[in-house]
Amino acid sequence: MSFSFDSLVLTPDQIDLARSPLAGIGVETYVLGAFNPGMTRLPDGNLLLMVRVAEALREPIFDGHVHAIRWQDGAYVLDAWPLGQADTADPRKFLLREHGWKVMALTSLSWLLPVELSADGTQVVALHYDKVIAPAGNWQCYGVEDARISRVGDKWWMTTCSVSPERHSTTLYSSDNALDWTFEGIVLDHQNKDMLIFEGLIGGKFWAQTRPLGDLYFAYPPGSPYHAGPSINHSTSPDARHWQPHLQPGIRPHAGTVSTARIGGGTPPVLTEVAGQRGWLTLWHGVEPSGIVGKYRTYWSLLDPDEPWNVLATSHPPLLEANPALTEPLREQMYVQDVVFTTGIVEEPDRFIVASGEADLACRITHVPRDAFVAS
Predict the structure, then answer these.
(1) Which GO molecular function entries does the Swiss-Prot or TrEMBL record give (predicted)?
(2) Which of 93, 273, 290, 358 is the most buried if burial means most Cβ atoms within 10 Å?
(3) Residue 295: CB atoms within 10 Å
């Protein structure tokens, strides 16, 4: 599918690490990726990307140990693990073998950088280093990841994934201008990397998509159109801070879609009209097993305006796939292939401006026309 605009708008080389919250850590770091940006429109009409900057150790292995960056009491420290205990096949993390179950640490630490774009999303206007969101407590000592931003009424809400040995939780921030954020606390106290708040109330309540993870799933009956695995569920809240899971299932892995070995929410649902129907448009990712991380593609579903657990329309072919031509100039910096991870959407009269992370490396903006949404 061809798009009128489909380009990388922010790459690792554009990040100034002299202004990083990790500046002064005492060892050399680099930007492993500037990617997976939450997106919204600012009051002045420009767009805002809340970019995940994964800052990594240039040499994580030295003195017979592999090292992780960790926030502790307002500073950043290095933890050393004996190399013989670690599986370092993935450059982003290492697995520790001694526990008898899956335990890992990161060779990078992520923080969030607000990046202002032009109104059409094609040009960088400003990088707001003075408004960075970085770890501020032991609940996120391994970093803050993958922001999603929703505007509900005159207030903005941002969910993030906070990583620590204590828990792999979802944290919430609020703002009156989408640039100055207030920490609201932990809202999901379990591993859930894809919580997205709907951009509007339903029946006077906030709604959100969630995606709890586990390592055991029960089978659907033979002949079911669905297969077992992580699914996109729903929760409701009176205030966006306290959430109750909804009884009805949401978007489930469908046997007719190739990339549903694992699925998760991508963009906050927006109330609009596509494919001849009105509903909550949500873009989500699906993964096809391949290599270390798999092939990530972007799909879409349209949910009922009043009963969002009912899917009105969807498409088995992907809306977006990884575009190797975009990352060709960055091939020396790439460490994964075939990954597009869509995280933000803004509606225009004739199109949608869609923000994605490309190859866990850079920020991609795509102008998707309304007629691209063709239901299967």
Answers:
(1) glycosyltransferase activity; hydrolase activity, acting on glycosyl bonds
(2) 358
(3) 21
The domain spans of the chain are 6-372
Could you tell me the sign of the dihedral formed by the alpha carbons of 28, 34, 36, 37, in that order? positive
- What is the chain's pLDDT, residue by residue, as a tens digit (376 residues)? 679 999 999 999 999 999 999 998 999 999 999 999 999 999 999 999 999 999 999 999 999 999 999 999 999 999 999 998 898 887 778 889 887 788 888 889 999 999 999 999 999 999 999 999 999 999 999 999 999 999 999 999 999 999 999 988 999 999 999 999 999 999 998 888 899 999 999 999 999 999 988 878 899 999 999 988 889 999 999 999 999 999 999 999 988 888 888 899 999 999 999 999 999 999 999 999 888 789 999 999 999 999 999 999 999 999 999 999 999 999 999 999 999 999 999 999 999 999 999 999 999 999 999 999 999 8
| pTM metric for this prediction | 0.96
H/E stretch holding 196 reads: strand 196-197
Question: How many angstroms separate the CA atoms of 174 and 153, rounded?
Answer: 12
The token duo for 95 is 């697995």
